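In the previous chapter we treated chains in isolation. Here, by contrast, the input contains two separate entities that must be folded as one system, with a combined length of 244 residues.
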Amino acid sequence: MTYQSPQAALDDADRLANAARRSGRWYANYLVAYAIGTLILALLVGAFPGSFGAVVGIGIWLVLVAALTIYQYRQRATIKRFGALHSIVIAVWGVLWIITVVVGSLYFVGQLGWWIGAGIATALPPLVGAVVVYRQTR
Amino acid sequence: MPGTEHPRHSLDELIQAPVRFSIMATLSGVGEAEFSFVRDTVQVSDSNLSKQVTILENAGYVRVRKGYVGKRPRTWLSLTPVGRETFSSQLATLQEIAQQAAAAAD
């Protein structure tokens, strides 16, 4: 295989890089699922104060995390700067989730409005991450 | 062009070879890719890819990481910072040559 011209090589490089780039899009789906799971968890904890909401919520969360881990291991390529983006998303999500649970458990028990608002806020980091990935893999 | 060196002289011969060029192009679009993904995208055999990757790894352009998913061994490939910079520079040079060729044809 040889290239007929420099332009042919450039076109091929573009085609291969784009195909490879698109293969990293799975991570956007991963983050959207993570955001939806976050919102469901917050709603369950908020709607059912006490152990029921927490137990069911954490059960669903563990299943989701296990499914996402399997999904991740099945992928064959990652986006550029995957490690940095994932670390930032999970770190910001973690801080927001701790605030949601601690403040909600102390001051907003049974007040669904807090849990909906805080759930949406906590879901934002993975959603923003998903937008970044979609744009990078277009 | 007396007194000016043709841009082709700054092309890196190691990645001028089409298969190696294609491997670099594929890896330029990702952070890391599995060996089988690169093989399927570039459409080469396992042995050819392995041989070309070794050459690129020895040149410092490609990093090879071996690991396991469950009990299955997997090999991951990525461009090193030097590899990324070299490939970028190769594309810029090719662009320059293509533009000169287009200008000469006008």
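The beta strands of chain A are 77-78. Chain A is about 80% helix and 0% strand. Compare these points with the single-chain example from earlier in the chapter.
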